[in-house]
Amino acid sequence: MALLEVRDLRTTFRTDDGLVTAIDGVSFSLEKGQVLGIVGESGSGKSVTSLSIMGLLPRGSAATSGQVLLDGRDLLTLGEEEMRKIRGQEIAMIFQDPMTSLNPVYTVGWQLIEAVRLHQDVSQTAATKRARDMLAAVGIPNPDERLRQYPHEFSGGMRQRVMIAMALANDPKLLIADEPTTALDVTTQAQILELIRRLRTDFDSAIVMITHDLGVVAEICDDVLVMYGGRVAEQGGVDDIFARPRHPYTWGLMGSMPSRSHGMDRLQSIPGSPPSLLRPPPGCRFSPRCPYVMDICRGDPPPPLRQVEDDPHFHVEACHLDAASKREEAARLLAAQEIVR
Ligand code: SF4
Question: Does ligand 1 lie within 6 Å of residue 250's CB atom?
């Protein structure tokens, strides 16, 4: 059995203007030591997916259905008390802005030690040693001295390292990283990705990487889920999707990556904006922005996710275009872009 198995996850919010279906039937599984990327623009449902898994959505206004099986146990059936024990111990999360999780009035050491003692019955000395070791493990120099400092005394990249240390302090089985490098400069971003790649091996954690950037997916992930308007557009192994992308939205995301031939010069953003989930367009939700739109797309939702015929591995997509057109268009785009991997 997979470490994490998400089956037909649906999350709906009750708002003053009506019901919003933020995630509509997401399924995936994840093994130990594996990294899954969930990629899409803001409003695609990727962050709501992670918050639904963590049980962090407001219970009064959000309703989640389906199954989230962690080691076979369905997290959606657990109460708040049980979920609190699981969060931080079995599943940990890091966010784009570490300051949302670090308390500015306590030292980094105090916060790390608290995180350890909240979930482990260990002495102050043992917790302090663990905190120090974790700072060293994430590449923070002079960890003994750093334990005594406050979050504002760390740079953005170092704060993100502290967050990662805190998230991994209790050896979680699953780490969810929500845009962990978005706020960082390019050099620090590369360092943090390298750190996550190393920790995945050292700690054997499974990682869900939430990102808007297909470049991050290419760097670090084994599998990828491309989301649009709360639904899965395309899903499969990263190598397969980069070799045989089959959904126009994936093509659009790939167009916004640097290419070998023109570097950053001709990055193309996808025209238009993501759909309102309160009143999504009928038919395919990508239809108002899709360069390949057909009449059927404006009336009928795409068929359920289907296996890509010419791919030997699990690789599914949902689009009305016929298989031959998808093959030809993908080949043309890949040749034109020379995507850098
Ligand atoms: Fe484009 Fe139609 Fe495919 Fe949607 S179903 S992605 S509109 S071609």
Answer: no
Whether 134 is in the pocket of ligand 1, judged by its Cβ within 6 Å, is: no
DSSP H/E element including 129: helix 124-137
In this prediction, residue 117 has a pLDDT band, given cuts at 50, 70 and 90, of very high
Helix (H) or strand (E) holding 156: helix 156-168
Biggest CA–CA distance in the chain, Å, is 68
CATH of span 4-221: 3.40.50.300
The answer, yes or no, to whether residue 183 has pLDDT greater than 80, is no
Mutate to test the pocket of ligand 1, among 249, 250, 284, 285 (most ligand atoms within 8 A of CB): 284
Could you give the residue range(s) of every CATH 3.40.50.300 domain in the chain?
4-221
Output the pTM of the full model: 0.91
In ligand 1, the atom with minimum distance to the C-alpha of 294 is 2
Say if ligand 1 is within 6 A of residue 242 CB: no
Q: Candidates 287, 305, 326, 333: which one to mutate for ligand 1, based on the most atoms within 8 Å of Cβ? A: 287
Q: Measure the N-to-C terminal CA separation of the chain; round to a whole number of Å.
A: 31
Which pLDDT band, with edges at 50, 70 and 90, does 267 fall under? low
Give DSSP secondary structure letters for 10-59.
Answer: EEEEEETTEEEEEEEEEEEEE-TT-EEEEE--TTSSHHHHHHHHHT-S-T
pLDDT on residue 325: 93
Residue 285 Cα: closest atom of ligand 1:
4
Does residue 252 or residue 198 have the better pLDDT? 252
Between CA 323 and CA 255 the distance in angstroms is: 21
